[in-house]
Design goal:
This is Cell division protein FtsA. The protein is α+β, with helices and mostly antiparallel strands and about 425 residues long. It is about 35% helix and about 20% strand. The strands form 5 sheets. It has a 5-stranded mixed beta sheet with strand order 11-10-9-14-15, with helices on both faces.
Length: about 425
């Protein structure tokens, strides 16, 4: 995958990680998309939207259907039907299904099947993982994107996508923790056995650090954000008390000199509070015992010293993930890149299952397994008999066909006859 264009815009219209002003959010989306279009020289019409883990619930789901005749092969329609059966859940009116992931299929008691298409059976089951979330968050996200003139192709839960980008196969298998430190909130996600097991959201993020700097130093939010980016350090022990810089203070005509260590103490106090809350929730479910440790993502993870501070609070191995692609070498781009990579890596059968969420039976993935007797010369299937009452016709004498003009299907059929003879 190559990144050919990047757009970045301040998240106006959001509070604590969720959309609260649809008009402002739509304007921000339009601006970011326009930047990416200009750099990539393409027009963007469809988007993949990442949604936060606020109040997301992870549940097990199971569906079963009768395929019919035991000689009938399982096809795309059967997969969509069994997925639709698994989605029949009694949800509270304020909740909506966000996503569904198939874990395994069962064909006539034969389990652990990844893709049942092409197999023969009379009963098909699907065991999967269901993700539900608040309708308000989902509706506001859809509305803002549509108001920006774009069409949603897929909604992806952000922590689920991040696991496919920032964790390797072993870390996803044995268990790891992802802490996404965004501007509006901090999200902790536990991944084990390649599945999202638990999420916790703390309604404090990078904006709270900026507010703390603004209040303590009596300076504007714009100046506080600039100080955080240019001189900020998450660990006061690493900061230098002798390095000073000017700060424009409200009500004073001359700037005030502030030390790097004093600024670091302000930042460290807020981060210790955030990490402390996350640590208590993770310890309650024994997630910190997982061998994969913690991976930090999000814009706040770019602060120097954040790894050392997190290691002190959590007592496990901590690292920061930074994308290697040109133009994206900052932790704040982790989620956007993860959402794209996650969607691109989905298997055909998973896309079929997800299509049951929208009720769209027209799958964009490849259709049923190709018939080996298909006419390869025209790349189209042989015409099927019409389902209409046949009209009586006069019998015509059979014509002998030139062997050189036999269809591809007849040649293949003849090959198998000779081979097995």
């Amino acid at each position: 995958m190559n990144v050919i264009g990047v757009g970045s815009e301040r998240s106006n219209g959001l509070s604590r990680g969720v959309i609260v002003d649809i008009d402002k959010a739509a304007t921000a989306i339009q601006s970011a998309v326009r930047q990416a279009e200009e750099k990539a020289s393409i027009e963007i019409k469809k988007v993949i939207a990442g949604v936060p883990a606020n109040l997301v619930k992870v549940e097990r789901c199971r569906g079963m259907i009768a395929v019919g005749d035991e000689s009938k092969e399982i096809n795309n329609d059967d997969v969509q039907k069994v997925a639709a059966a698994a989605l029949v859940q009694s949800l509270p009116p304020e909740r909506e299904i966000l996503d569904v992931i198939p874990d395994e299929f069962v064909v006539d008691d034969f389990a652990d099947i990844a893709d049942p298409r092409g197999m023969v059976g009379v009963r098909l089951e699907m065991h999967g993982t269901l993700f539900t979330g608040p309708k308000t968050i989902i509706h506001n996200t859809r509305k803002a994107i549509e108001k920006a003139g774009l069409q949603i192709e897929q909604i992806v839960i952000a922590p689920l996508a991040l696991s496919s980008l920032v964790l390797n196969d072993g870390e996803q298998d044995f268990g790891s923790i992802i802490i996404d430190m965004g501007g509006g909130q901090t999200t902790a996600a536990v991944v084990h056995d390649h599945q999202l097991k638990y999420t916790y959201v703390d309604q404090e993020g990078g904006q709270y650090i900026t507010k703390d700097i603004s209040v303590v130093l009596n300076t504007s939010m714009e100046n506080a954000e600039k100080l955080k980016r240019d001189y900020g350090n998450a660990d006061s022990q690493q900061a230098n008390d002798e390095v000073e810089f000017p700060v424009d203070v409200v009500g004073q005509s001359t700037p005030t000199q502030i030390s790097e260590q004093y600024l670091a103490e302000i930042i460290e106090a807020r981060l210790e509070q955030i990490f402390g809350k996350v640590e208590s929730h993770l310890s309650a479910i024994h997630a910190l015992d997982l061998p994969g440790g913690i991976v930090l993502t999000g814009g706040v993870a770019a602060l120097p010293g954040v790894t050392d501070l997190a290691t002190q609070v959590f007592g496990v191995n901590v690292r920061v993930f930074t994308p290697s692609q040109m133009g994206l070498r900052h932790p704040s781009f982790d989620e956007a890149l993860a959402v794209i990579k996650y969607q691109a890596a989905l298997s055909d059968v998973t896309k079929l299952v997800k299509s049951a969420l929208t009720g769209d039976t027209r799958s964009s993935v490849a259709l049923d397994i190709a018939d080996p007797l298909m006419d390869s010369a025209s790349s189209t299937p042989a015409p099927q008999p019409q389902q209409q009452p046949a009209k009586p016709t006069k019998k015509q004498p059979a014509k002998k066909q030139d062997p050189n003009q036999q269809s591809a299907s007849e040649r293949i059929r003849g090959f198998f006859n000779h081979f097995f003879d």
